[in-house]
């Protein structure tokens, strides 16, 4: 079966221990969680977890059933292959030199990144984009000597109401 | 006296229909033990927490009610783990209550503090950490609800001592139980019925879920109407009486050759409450190569977990069978039934004593000496296979065994739970010498409560099943499986206050068995069996269900 990346979104009760139960569903079956994002929804009793994992194509169905069984999981949605908007945020800090400064600033402009802090020889930028794009941007800046990089992992919403 | 948390626990348990708890105290359970003095709930003091969990499990298996065990924090709670895992693997409805250290000590590595919720997460359906006395009633109710509905299983409730001792007011009233969902996907059942009606060589596969779903009566009716032969998993044994003419036996590694052969040749399998573990299917790619598979299970994750399923149906088995029954058109399948008849005959001629040798004939004699409604509890090892292959079940809750987990030491404490739950029925344990040692301390519980349990230890001086595997697949190099013959088990039993005698199985054990069955109280029979008595046939590792072997 083909290995592909899956994005799954869960609504869960905002309670201690929920995350470790969910992690257990993945780890006990040998799956690795590649990114994970957790935050409260508009209802403070419910949190949304968005996570990605690489696995065979029937993975979501099997994992979804296991996740559905957890008492504190309210719903499980699979974004894989569905029309959706996915974004992650990435922060990159770079050393600036006389030689690279111009090119870096130009690229920041082209890519639509935002400069958050800058000094004579140092710069921090922020990028919000889908994962392919953040990956491409990171690849571009790497030769300039990325000091630090951190990213959030994907969050997603459907492009249209699903029942439309 | 204003009620404290412990009173709320006991009151809620009573409301849930609990009349017994199997437990072991510690400083942190004491508020609860103290209030038991004023409660009608009986607490059975076991001699080990593992045994408390197995007893709750045995109670649930024998009665269908939720079994309850209680242990203190730290070592008490961790001692429950094997028992909880055993219940989880066989989907026994159980609520395990653990006392926890005072909540102001959490996370400080306090004396006897363990994260029992974390430890048991993979072996429970769910767990509750009580943080407030006002949550006690609602969490406990939810625990019982979860344990006893859907795919049943163990739920753990961890309650800190300070909350057990805290004064608390009236708790909210019990909410009405949610109505179970009605069948939604009727068309799928119609498709299953059509496929069964069309099939030439159908076999029904009965798993443990048929008993758990209380669908045994419906199952027998269904078989009678459809005139379709059935096999079971080890956990499915007893769902339909052994003597039923359509019974082919149980499938898998240690199963009946007829059952393994026939499911292999079948063109349609209707599986109910079975998850197709490798113990049952052997090499999965070679399992029932000609069959389309319909699988009915209450747990969606069990469906298609191990085999490809053509007709899945998620739902309550009892309801599914009731809906299927009118859709079944009985038809003649003479060629198929004839093939089964002749195979049965040849196999019976080939295999004397059902492949269970001396032990098989011992078990037959024991059953003959005991009342028809006797509950037999097996341990794990050769003794388990001898028992489940030999004992003739007449009713569903009469053969108890640890199937999914294969826990040695299960039998004696589970028998205690079974007897407490079914005081009108005789209870016989059949275990090996190895498994007997694993919870031997429970003879003290049996004797303290005067429980008239008959414990038969089949003593071959060895970890017999391990020895058989070594004999067959490790060039007969017998390492680490010899238990020796230095222990006088009858003296040990007598020391516990249980009358006991020893008998050699190759001499006639009938009189000894008669003395055992006539005993009013507990009795221990040590039955000496030759170390070279094995179980045949057996499926070697890496082979398919039809590659059973009958010797080296
Ligand atoms: C707790 C536990 N430990 C180890 C095993 C592995 N095991 C399976 S059968 C067996 C031998 C059992 O020996 P005994 O109880 O004497 O029964 P016999 O096979 O001789 O009838 C062992 C060690 C197990 N199933 N459970
Ligand atoms: Mg033995």
Keywords summarizing the entry:
heterodimer, A: 164 residues, alpha+beta, Alpha-Beta Plaits, 2 domains, 5-stranded antiparallel β-sheet, 4-stranded antiparallel β-sheet, B: 552 residues, alpha/beta, Rossmann fold, 3 domains, 6-stranded parallel β-sheet, 23 helices, 38% helix, globular, binds thiamine diphosphate, binds magnesium ion
Structural commentary:
- The complex is a heterodimer of chains A (164) and B (552).
- Chain A is α+β, with helices and mostly antiparallel strands and 164 residues long.
- Chain A has 2 domains: 3-81, 2-Layer Sandwich (Alpha-Beta Plaits); 85-156, ACT-like. Chain A, domain 2 (Alpha-Beta Plaits), CATH 3.30.70.1150.
- Chain A has 4 helices and 9 strands, in the order E-H-E-E-H-E-E-H-E-E-H-E-E.
- Chain A is elongated, with a radius of gyration of 19 Å.
- Helix content of chain B is 38%, strand content 16%.
- Chain B folds into 3 domains: 5-165, 3-Layer(aba) Sandwich (Rossmann fold); 186-350, Rossmann fold, CATH 3.40.50.1220; 357-528, Thiamin diphosphate (ThDP)-binding fold, Pyr/PP domains (Rossmann fold, 3-Layer(aba) Sandwich).
- In chain B, strands 2-1-3-4-6-5 form a 6-stranded parallel beta sheet, sandwiched between helices. In chain B, strands 9-8-7-10-11-12 form a 6-stranded parallel beta sheet. In chain B, strands 14-13-15-16-18-17 form a 6-stranded parallel beta sheet, sandwiched between helices.
- The relative contact order of chain B is 0.11.
- By secondary structure, chain B is α/β, with parallel strands linked by helices.
- The A-B interface holds A 16-17, 20-21, 24, 28, 62, 65-66, 68-71 and B 117-118, 121-122, 125-127, 129, 146, 299-301, 305.
- The site of thiamine diphosphate has 20 residues of chain B, from helix 17, helix 19 and helix 21.
């Amino acid at each position: 079966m083909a290995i592909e990346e899956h994005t799954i979104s869960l609504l869960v009760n905002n309670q201690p221990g929920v995350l470790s139960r969910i992690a257990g569903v993945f780890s006990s079956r040998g799956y690795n969680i590649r990114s994970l994002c957790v935050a409260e929804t508009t209802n403070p009793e419910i949190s949304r977890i968005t996570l990605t994992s690489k696995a065979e194509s029937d993975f979501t169905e099997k994992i979804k059933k296991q996740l559905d069984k957890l008492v504190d999981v309210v719903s499980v949605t699979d974004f894989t292959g569905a029309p959706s908007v996915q974004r992650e945020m990435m922060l990159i800090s770079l050393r600036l030199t006389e030689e690279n400064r111009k090119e870096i600033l130009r690229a920041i402009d082209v890519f639509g990144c935002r400069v958050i802090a800058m000094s004579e020889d140092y710069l921090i930028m922020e990028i919000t984009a889908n994962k392919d794009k953040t990956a491409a941007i990171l690849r571009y800046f790497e030769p300039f000597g990325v000091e630090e990089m951190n990213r959030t992992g994907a969050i997603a919403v459907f492009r249209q109401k699903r029942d439309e | 006296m204003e009620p404290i948390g412990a009173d709320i626990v006991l009151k809620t348990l009573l409301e849930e229909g609990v009349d017994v708890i199997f437990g072991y105290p510690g400083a942190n359970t004491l508020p609860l033990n103290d209030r038991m003095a004023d409660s009608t709930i009986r607490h059975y003091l076991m001699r080990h927490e593992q045994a408390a969990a197995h007893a709750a499990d045995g109670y649930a298996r024998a009665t269908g009610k939720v079994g309850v065990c209680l242990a203190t924090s730290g070592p008490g709670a961790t001692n429950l783990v094997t028992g909880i895992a055993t219940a989880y693997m066989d989907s026994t409805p159980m609520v395990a209550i653990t006392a926890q250290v005072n909540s102001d000590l959490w996370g400080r590595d306090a004396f006897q503090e363990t994260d029992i919720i974390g430890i048991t997460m993979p072996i429970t359906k769910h767990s509750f950490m009580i943080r407030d006395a006002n949550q006690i009633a609602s969490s406990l109710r939810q625990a019982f609800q979860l344990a006893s509905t859907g795919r049943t299983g163990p739920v753990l409730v961890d309650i800190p001592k300070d909350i057990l001792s805290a004064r608390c007011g009236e708790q909210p009233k019990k909410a009405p139980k949610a109505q179970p969902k009605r069948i939604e996907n009727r068309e799928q059942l119609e498709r299953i019925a059509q496929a069964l009606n069309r099939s030439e060589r159908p076999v029904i596969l009965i798993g443990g879920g048929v008993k758990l779903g209380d669908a045994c009566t419906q199952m027998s009716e269904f078989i009678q109407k459809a005139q379709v032969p059935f096999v079971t998993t080890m956990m499915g044994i007893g769902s339909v009486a052994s003597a039923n003419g359509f019974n082919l036996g149980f499938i898998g590694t240690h199963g009946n050759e007829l059952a393994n052969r026939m499911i292999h040749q079948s063109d349609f399998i209707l599986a109910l409450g079975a998850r197709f573990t490798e113990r049952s299917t052997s090499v999965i790619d070679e399992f029932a190569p000609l069959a389309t598979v319909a699988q009915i299970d209450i747990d969606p994750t069990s469906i298609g977990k191990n085999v490809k399923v053509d007709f899945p149906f998620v739902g309550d088995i009892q309801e599914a069978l009731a809906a299927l029954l009118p859709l079944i058109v009985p038809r003649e399948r003479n060629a198929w039934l004839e093939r089964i008849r002749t195979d049965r005959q040849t196999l019976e001629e080939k295999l004397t004593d059902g492949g269970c040798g001396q032990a098989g004939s011992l078990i037959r004699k024991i059953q003959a000496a005991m009342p028809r409604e006797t509950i037999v509890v097996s341990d794990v090892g050769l003794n388990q296979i001898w028992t489940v292959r030999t004992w003739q079940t007449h009713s569903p809750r009469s053969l108890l065994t640890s199937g999914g987990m294969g826990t040695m030491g299960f039998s004696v404490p589970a028998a205690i739970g079974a007897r407490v739950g079914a005081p009108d029925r005789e209870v016989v344990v059949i275990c090996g010498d190895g498994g007997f040692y694993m919870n031997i301390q429970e003879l003290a519980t049996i004797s303290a409560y005067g429980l008239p349990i008959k414990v038969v230890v089949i003593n071959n001086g060895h970890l017999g099943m391990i020895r058989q595997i070594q004999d067959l697949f490790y060039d007969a190099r017998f390492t680490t499986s010899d238990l020796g013959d230095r222990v006088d088990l009858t003296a040990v039993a007598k020391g516990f206050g249980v009358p006991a005698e020893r008998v050699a199985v190759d001499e006639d054990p009938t009189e000894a068995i008669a003395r055992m069955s006539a005993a009013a109280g507990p009795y221990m029979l040590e039955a000496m069996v030759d170390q070279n008595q094995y179980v045949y046939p057996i499926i070697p590792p890496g082979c398919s269900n039809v590659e059973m072997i009958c010797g080296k």
